[in-house]
Amino acid sequence: MGDNAGPAGNGHNGPSVLSITPAARAVVLDARAEEADAERLALWVEVTGSRDGAYTYDIYFQVAADAAESDVVAGSDDLRVVVPQASVARLTGARLDWSDDGDGGLVIVNPNTPPRTDAFATRAPGDLSGEMAQQVLTVLEEQINPSIAMHGGRADLVAVESGVVYLRLSGGCQGCGLATVTLSQGIEVALRDSLPDIVSVVDVTDHASGVNPFYEPAKK
Asked: What confidence tens digit (pLDDT) does each residue in 52-80 have?
């Protein structure tokens, strides 16, 4: 595979997305060798959310054939690397490395950071007359809100800037410990399925003021 995993929508060459150091690659190959049907497994790397101004990730083994046409697949016959399409923009230029700190572990060094949400936390919805904003509103009202309304939740569009969709959750979704899952695995998936040009979906909700806030001040 070399040290680069470049976007290769199902194997086609392209600019670099995620590089892998030799140390990290050796660890991955050793770990995969202990899995059943190891030769069928690829290393999947995806962004799962953000915390403290940095992205969070999931790194796991999954059958390479499960990759969709829009996913990035790269590597060589001995190790394929898959980056799901929703994570490509957020991982471009990143590096998978091995760290000896503590007990050691795989780390991702990423030049990309999540869009800042503080400017949107209390911001009222702005001009939503643009084409993408109107398309997002349609998906929210026709698909997403009817679904999460069954759990007392609602998602409102705050802004769309440079392909980034900023949403504010309310009702049962505000302060809910599963809000991140709802956003990444439900809302973002639905929006990206309908609008592939969306770069990412960012939650700007003040969850601390929700009914069941999962951001709690330290106990004194």
From this structure: 678 888 999 999 999 988 899 887 768 89
